[in-house]
Fold these 2 entries.
Entry 1:
Amino acid sequence: MPELDQQQPLAGAPAARVLVAGASGFTGALAAQIVWRHPQLELVAITSRSDAGTRLDRLYPRYRVPLELTELDLGRVEGIDAAIVAYPHGASAPAVAALRERDVIVADLSADFRLRDRETYERWYGEHGAPELFGAAVYGLAEMYREELRGAKLAAIPGCYPTASVLALAPLAEKGLIADVVIDAKQGVSGAGRGGGDAMHYVTMDENAFAYKTEGHRHRPEIEQELAALGSNVPVTFVPHLLPLDQGELASCYAQLIEPISKEEVQALYAERYAGERFVRVVDRPPGLRDVRDTNDCHVYVTVEERGRVLAFSAIDNIWKGASSQAVQCLNLMLGLDEGMGLE
Amino acid sequence: MPELDQQQPLAGAPAARVLVAGASGFTGALAAQIVWRHPQLELVAITSRSDAGTRLDRLYPRYRVPLELTELDLGRVEGIDAAIVAYPHGASAPAVAALRERDVIVADLSADFRLRDRETYERWYGEHGAPELFGAAVYGLAEMYREELRGAKLAAIPGCYPTASVLALAPLAEKGLIADVVIDAKQGVSGAGRGGGDAMHYVTMDENAFAYKTEGHRHRPEIEQELAALGSNVPVTFVPHLLPLDQGELASCYAQLIEPISKEEVQALYAERYAGERFVRVVDRPPGLRDVRDTNDCHVYVTVEERGRVLAFSAIDNIWKGASSQAVQCLNLMLGLDEGMGLE
Amino acid sequence: MPELDQQQPLAGAPAARVLVAGASGFTGALAAQIVWRHPQLELVAITSRSDAGTRLDRLYPRYRVPLELTELDLGRVEGIDAAIVAYPHGASAPAVAALRERDVIVADLSADFRLRDRETYERWYGEHGAPELFGAAVYGLAEMYREELRGAKLAAIPGCYPTASVLALAPLAEKGLIADVVIDAKQGVSGAGRGGGDAMHYVTMDENAFAYKTEGHRHRPEIEQELAALGSNVPVTFVPHLLPLDQGELASCYAQLIEPISKEEVQALYAERYAGERFVRVVDRPPGLRDVRDTNDCHVYVTVEERGRVLAFSAIDNIWKGASSQAVQCLNLMLGLDEGMGLE
Amino acid sequence: MPELDQQQPLAGAPAARVLVAGASGFTGALAAQIVWRHPQLELVAITSRSDAGTRLDRLYPRYRVPLELTELDLGRVEGIDAAIVAYPHGASAPAVAALRERDVIVADLSADFRLRDRETYERWYGEHGAPELFGAAVYGLAEMYREELRGAKLAAIPGCYPTASVLALAPLAEKGLIADVVIDAKQGVSGAGRGGGDAMHYVTMDENAFAYKTEGHRHRPEIEQELAALGSNVPVTFVPHLLPLDQGELASCYAQLIEPISKEEVQALYAERYAGERFVRVVDRPPGLRDVRDTNDCHVYVTVEERGRVLAFSAIDNIWKGASSQAVQCLNLMLGLDEGMGLE
């Protein structure tokens, strides 16, 4: 077999032996690929209920992971230091709890540990599958919770919508400047995940675009929670749209401020806030999705339009920074590694 | 030659002999195609400076118009009853004036006659090329100005952004209900027109999406003008985006109202307002661009989201209802024909 | 409701009352749409097992057919003169037989009646579901079997691959000139039909292209049958590919001839052969799929390359001329109507 | 500025200081990006006539090269060990000659040094710009000329069509088995390069596909030259097509053999031939373009179809393995580095 199939040789002992659970979905498969190429992580198992027995590089030839998917057997989780869990909301919590019992460090891609208010969780997702762990996770957005993530045992990785929205608005929210915000979010089809039937058929999405979940999307309370945590406890209008492309998430944010701000001031504020962030780049024109595809980068542009609103645009790759590479970014911090290792 | 190349035989004498000026651009070529197939209009000339000498069905094989493009010679405009002018902003006004002097009925696709405030025009477009005609046109949105269009001699056809935005908001604006509105508009690449160089190269736009003209777009004052004319004199935040598809325009409108309204009330308001409109359909879920491609239709969905904002979404084909077929819709009214003739 | 929802008023009594069976698939839905707009056909019923109870314009908003899909009840087929059957291969034959027993004229989109050799049919499709009718159909390619189709009761409409391939090669085949042919066929995703799961997910097909069924495709014997019927009994190498677009079928044909021919001669041969065909246009450069989208047209280009092979390229819309509009073209002939009625 | 902008620190002194000339085109820009990230190459200059003064990461934000494009001044080529030249055919030869005079090692992406027969070159490309160097280059396909490339000073990197075609057919050609071959090649729009005007506008290519240069393409003699060099001096029919996607090249090859071969035999032959090649993978189903996007990989599938022809399919990324990453693969060999360095 070609050498491509060889995992990158590690320099010395790996920092962690890693399991990816739910590796047959889009984000799980990508997480496996990133761990596979990571210089200090060893990918020791990838699991899937639906595709057990299949090699991942057969399911996704574009990812070069020559491991076979197996069914997760929690009774046999040995020699695993860390896990990325890519399960659906609801299904994730019990699996995460079982892994945590075995002292496995977990980066969870589901929504199960993102919310801090139990009632809100139950309204949107139903009963929680591991109530004893509710609220125990650090929110997996390194740009906001870097210190809390260092050494943490459980991180709740935000999805693409909160990631893009919060990064677009954080510098304003931290100053308590936001009075009201509309977020018009646009995402590629990979965000809808595998399955989807007719709705995600090529013929349905080709040359198409539309809004969905217009009456209320469960990421709205999560975005409000994080803006409030930063300093701006404000109502958010959030509407997601689907675009005819594979990977990408563009958040167009329209904010009324408590007091006016000039274009120069707000651009300086953003430049300063993100000066030290290696994965957030403040750019000088509205970012395009192609600029960030297949990267952990977030490009942000902020300006003030004629009518006085602040406009903030952020572009990420929805399955990278909006999911899988962000999970590895967090895992790096949790394991004491360099935050960007394996991501550049 | 195949019969496809034969113009539809007219039933009796044509209602009008039509010229399309600027027929080598996307909207001009489509206008030529629609006139060509129209049962009561006769396409007698198509003109273009850049492509004179070329047959239109060679330039655009998907349009079946076997006429040769010629240079417009205003001194020889004889036997022409009506014209659709698809010139760039600024270049249009003098040509329209010359045609009007020869008593040709004109549907103008440029912005030159849309605005009613001269100062606003000059701010965004520069000096006007036919000041004596400024303000003389009827705004070419049949759903708002139907009676004025009947028998009119000059119509200023709105572009896709104002068309989609005004149709999305008109029922609220007419009641004077709107306090403030954000319009996040998304458009296919055909909206950028021919040319464009690198920016519109397939490789640039493929898998891409981004906002543009975020500091101020010249369609914003036009939308404000029309909302005010309907009854809601309010500031508009308007941001256009480009999507990786050919034809389509989606306006996502976020309106704060002067007083709250329920989802049922607002949906009833829209249903009633558009009940008699054959080209506007109030739909029961957010419309997709594929639903309206290659048609003169506008699909509108309205709802109220959790935070109390009214959301209105409209989808049109940007070069049909947002330009060329809307011009024919207006021409039909101006000529006393059935409004939908040749459009269904 | 908008007038768009009204069926085109017929001029006088309809020529036929038409049923479309299997109208929830891509080709059945399009057939329903074409019949709906046809000036002399009345669409009286559309049926579907999987989507019974749904209105077709909800399932496919881009088609404007406001009828509800029902389950086909062959015991209640009354007042139906003609049917377009869009069932899967195998399932079609018994339904067609039942309709024929009730004297309904049938245009069948499946492969069940296309082949003339029973053994070949069984090899590729299994047991035939209506052996008494095997061989009873006229092959539904009007350009080859026009006279046989007039007044016929059962037509076997060829799919997009044989349609494009045979039209590309017919002028040569009729002269008995072909010695050997390679057909490299490329098709949009609509050709794979609804369903398809992961394989037809937007994410799978986006930015992708590949060959499939490389060891043998069941359309190969059908193409060989038709070339032989025209005069060239030769082996065909046929390989289909899938492209990242919705509608379109491009057949690139590489023919060795029995004797050399010049580019001028072969182009003259094609021009002459297709001079009277309104839906086949011999063009002077290789045709593009966009040129024929949403039409019943076939564009053909023929040339001779440096090494002496004749190259013939044909482009059609795979679900129009490659299926649904071709069925209506045949139905027109079967019913004694103008061949192109409702198709231009 | 983010650390992303920092070039990868080199481990010790760089193996070579590299210039990329013509770095504002698609392949030059990608070459710059690959060199930028290469662990043993130092990117010291990137040049462009048309875009001098612009930073490359502004022209192509997706590439993270923060260097400014400058005009190439051959009088000031100092401290440069190696160059990748991405000039148009014809323009390349004199620049390459000047670089070679200064003892710069060159990987040339143009066709200027690929052909070995001067007359053939002149027929397709006109007069040669550096006749003294004609024939002096090693053909830059490492899988065929690995030993010759080690230590070579000038490599003529084949384009995507010959690369994909020769890799698809080499195992057969080396055995002298091929009697005749048809190559139907399909390429994404990036292959057409920047510029292109209307022809490469998003609107032109969207939902489109077509053949071009059907009467003779200049890559045909190059493919014939290389098949002959391998052992099969046979005429090639070669037809390129353009597909609606960005990056990718699929060669579908239809070969008549001198003697029959079974599917098992031919698959064993390919498996054996490519067993040691790290960038060629023999796969067990027809390869898709997505499988190889953004990689230096070539996926090959071979089989025998019912009529006895051997079918060989190869997929590469046209601007990676078909141009820029292949240039770096060759440069690695020329410089004595590991062949795959910086490419995995």
Note: Chain B is about 30% helix and 20% strand.
Entry 2:
Amino acid sequence: MHDAPDAAETAAMPGFSLGELAKALGARLEGDGGLRITGAAEPQDAGPDRIALAMKPEYAARLAEGRALAALLHDGADWRALGLRGALFVPRPRFAMAHLTRALDPGPDIAPGIHPTAVIDPSAEIGDGAAIGPLVVIGAAVRIGARARIAAHCSIGAGAEIGPDALLHAGVRLGARVRIGARFIAQPGAVIGGDGFSFVTPDKSAVEQMRETLGQVSIPPRAQGWTRIHSLGSVQIGDDVEIGANSTIDRGTIRDTEIGSGTRIDNLVHVGHNVRIGRDCMLCGQVGIAGSAVIGDRVVLGGQVGVNDNIHVGNDVIAAGGSDIYTNAPAGRVLMGSPAIRMEQQLETYKALRRLPRLLRRLEAAEKAARHKSVPKTGDND
Amino acid sequence: MHDAPDAAETAAMPGFSLGELAKALGARLEGDGGLRITGAAEPQDAGPDRIALAMKPEYAARLAEGRALAALLHDGADWRALGLRGALFVPRPRFAMAHLTRALDPGPDIAPGIHPTAVIDPSAEIGDGAAIGPLVVIGAAVRIGARARIAAHCSIGAGAEIGPDALLHAGVRLGARVRIGARFIAQPGAVIGGDGFSFVTPDKSAVEQMRETLGQVSIPPRAQGWTRIHSLGSVQIGDDVEIGANSTIDRGTIRDTEIGSGTRIDNLVHVGHNVRIGRDCMLCGQVGIAGSAVIGDRVVLGGQVGVNDNIHVGNDVIAAGGSDIYTNAPAGRVLMGSPAIRMEQQLETYKALRRLPRLLRRLEAAEKAARHKSVPKTGDND
Amino acid sequence: MHDAPDAAETAAMPGFSLGELAKALGARLEGDGGLRITGAAEPQDAGPDRIALAMKPEYAARLAEGRALAALLHDGADWRALGLRGALFVPRPRFAMAHLTRALDPGPDIAPGIHPTAVIDPSAEIGDGAAIGPLVVIGAAVRIGARARIAAHCSIGAGAEIGPDALLHAGVRLGARVRIGARFIAQPGAVIGGDGFSFVTPDKSAVEQMRETLGQVSIPPRAQGWTRIHSLGSVQIGDDVEIGANSTIDRGTIRDTEIGSGTRIDNLVHVGHNVRIGRDCMLCGQVGIAGSAVIGDRVVLGGQVGVNDNIHVGNDVIAAGGSDIYTNAPAGRVLMGSPAIRMEQQLETYKALRRLPRLLRRLEAAEKAARHKSVPKTGDND
């Protein structure tokens, strides 16, 4: 889009020989293992120092448009015929991508040590080898694990605790007494430990009645303000969790909001107060989970999925993007739609819906015809 | 989730006697009013210095699993039989939670006075007793009320005005000339007073025609750029308003965007330019209100509800989570679905929809049978 | 809402004569071109130094409630009869608003030069005439164009490049190696260049199978963690792009995520990794675009629209607010609903849906009658 030289090339990238990369990826090497690799690229964009990612035949076909000397290929590909000098082969290419990209990631640019502009309470404990960026604020009695990297403008509230090897990108907010395990990653602007959204009216509110009656509100409108329920709980997060940019995880009311180990959360996701999320879940962009919902293990929620408050989503549930989960979902269920139902049933309903307008026209014609037919009949004698 | 000692217990919590707590809650005390209470907990988790929250029989049954000496109980519960030494009784337990949690909330850790790293324009006026945290930026001619607490990394634009007793958590952004009443709370990362999203094309655009014709666009595609309409207005917010983490409230084009007193807004909510929201509304997580919409008083919008631009949502409207409100909604209406219609009607439609695929199969079978039957008839002589 | 003096009036506003404003707007002037104008207002709110915006007869009718001496009027309006001393007329009033508001916008209050509290890497290049606000952090090898204005608390990662005349509001985060063209605007809290959300399991996951089978998952639940695919790519943005408050644009995996020139993005929008967005698009509040989707030119997505990963949305597509786009959309298509289909077809479906419950009742009655009728028939001999 710009004619400027490729900024990515000017940034310091770790270099590898193709043989070293093969070892890092657990890949089978064919050809010249001494080729120097400094990055990865799509086949058509790859220069001679990039490994081209060509794990499908249609990608490999585009190698001729680029200048790659080495590629990650699908099994059976003829690397010599593709004009390469070396190639790597892996049984599950998508999984190899994880190793490859980790090896080639230059990582965030947070200088080792504590930047002089950081504001750190003297009672805070910072682990060995941690890197604290400029203008970071760390409150009283905070404990940060070894080798943590905390980028510019992060703030960490009093009594918060983060395990070893954490990476907090710029502007992350951790509230007071938040506790997080090892290898935590937070993308820029993530907020963990804001207050829960919990209010109550002096007398029963129209919303409470609406929920009891499914829509029949008879309480006359009345001015009664919302009184705040404070969040005495905090947030507890396991090991190997990642939270996306500008996502928000609220503290609990009495106990902590909980996120289990291995769970990954995308950008702009909202997790309400008291929510419990299990292990190894995946919450895609803009998912919203209302207060006190319980999410099992290995649950996958597509983008913009909404989960009602106080419901239970079982282990291994998968919900398609945009689904609204209003009611408890049993383990293993694949959900879709609003309200979310079994995906197969929802797809059948969508199909039927497409045919509904024509159906209505046919039926009305049939009814009209029937009425027309029956009118003379009233005068008949049979 | 961690074996580390409970961080919440190490943080300074205000202590109360059970008798003092009874007075703060307007609760009836039974038993030992001298018990020392430093926090609240769920029955199974409560230690001897915590008041257990056991306002329903099923919660009270779990008191035996914990070590609580005092509890907040439902009327009629036998506190002695539950092994307690004291108990509090309230007519509306959910409401008592508000008082209880306020009493026990240690509050944010913002040191009194102005932190030396804060960057404050000399023309700004800071009220008595205000606490301004580290690395806060306050612009020219800003006026901040008495006892305001402004956490780390907040920025407040020129000419903004905040009433007394405000609490701005870390990283809140207030734009220029924003005006806010008393007792305002903003969660981390909230943005109040970003520019409105308002653009215009030199000639009528396809969108304008689409809106006029409900979908029939005949204007040929044409490259014409969007020209920006600047936001000369700002944002006006009443008293006792709370805005959630990473929510965004845009400034108005000519006049101010307005949010009435007592309105509570959850995380990741978007309020567009020129919107007017009334008093005592509740907007749950990820609600989006497009430009120039008008929302009445006491309106409750569930999570992820969308409100179209330029429409009017009447007083006391309640919309279920995920609803899309495309058209004006009369006062008191309970809404659900996309497009949102009366909840009762929507629930009936959902039920019918579940039966639609089977209905279609029956109808097609019937039509086939009828056709089959009518074929021989054509040859009949009757 | 407050009785305090109008903060907007105390802020320094550039002043114009009505004649100068006419020239800036390309408007036809009638009456006194020497009138002093310091701002714009709605007719009923306008003081004598404000130009009233009264481009429709119903707005002009409210001029009597205010004190305006000059107005922007619809063609044919009689400005003398409306009590004015001068008036401007334009062929397309909505477009004139763009020029008018730009002329009257006091702009952000970022002092020229580099604030002493900014933390700027010595290898960064800052263009002539740039204004860098307090507590800004700029990384190594960053290049910032001439006349850029960067507000408080922004952070810009190593190797990022921004063209001339950029405006970054408070707290914007630009990741490493992000490249942006001329005249870029980012509202507060926008995050450009967070890591993509891309994970893989060692073996085929239930989600992969669900996608292949449309909902039939037979893989038994199994604990297998998500392994992270790192984002080696960055984000490339063209000229004249605007990104809204707290929106997030993720970096690409191998190549860059791309946003074309002239595209405008509202608040809380999520753009996933590898996404390609064309020129002059408009993405309204809370739109979410999943990874690797491709969006054409001049596409308009209403609020809360979701776009599935890996699909293609053609040029000039318009999608109504709340639509979920699960499948490729051809150029020029106007979409609505979940799943999104042609708007006209969707509106017809909605209408049919409203009639469905009654239809079902009629059909059941008819079937019951038919069964009732057919019962004796079984005994008939004809």
Note: The radius of gyration of chain C is 29 Å.
